[in-house]
Amino acid sequence: MMARPENPRLARCFDDALSRGYEIRYVDETQVIADRKNTWGCLGLAFLFGIGVLTAFVVPIILLILGAFAPRGQVITYRLKRNGKVSKKRRAA
User: Fold this and answer.
1) 3-class DSSP state for residue 4?
2) In this structure, are residues 46 and 54 in contact, taking their beta carbons and an 8 Å threshold?
């Protein structure tokens, strides 16, 4: 497990990320980088299959094609600024 940062604001971001189930990728005294995975899973595919049965397979095929190229999650970077505040940056992974 990664070491918790000493800065109280970054430590709060670290704790929030862990409590939400994010994977912590990197931690130091200036930033915390967390990874959040998308959670469609088997229920999402069953939902798309159900929609497909109801709509003659047109809409779910389009959704599955778009879903194949969709991002797999988000990488969230919490960075400590010079004024002591924390900036949050999200990007697709």
Assistant:
1) coil
2) no
Specify the DSSP element, H or E, that contains 16. Answer: helix 8-19
Q: Which residues neighbour 17 within 8 Å (Cβ) at sequence distance 6 or greater?
A: 24, 32, 34, 76, 78
Q: What is the pLDDT of residues 43-58, one digit of tens each?
A: 776 777 777 777 766 7
Distance CA(93)–CA(78), nearest Å, equals 16
Contacts of 64 (CB under 8 A, 6+ apart): 48
The pTM for the full model equals 0.67
pLDDT digits (tens, 9 = 90+) for 9-18: 999 999 999 9
Instruction: Confirm if 64 and 78 have CB atoms less than 8 A apart.
Output: no
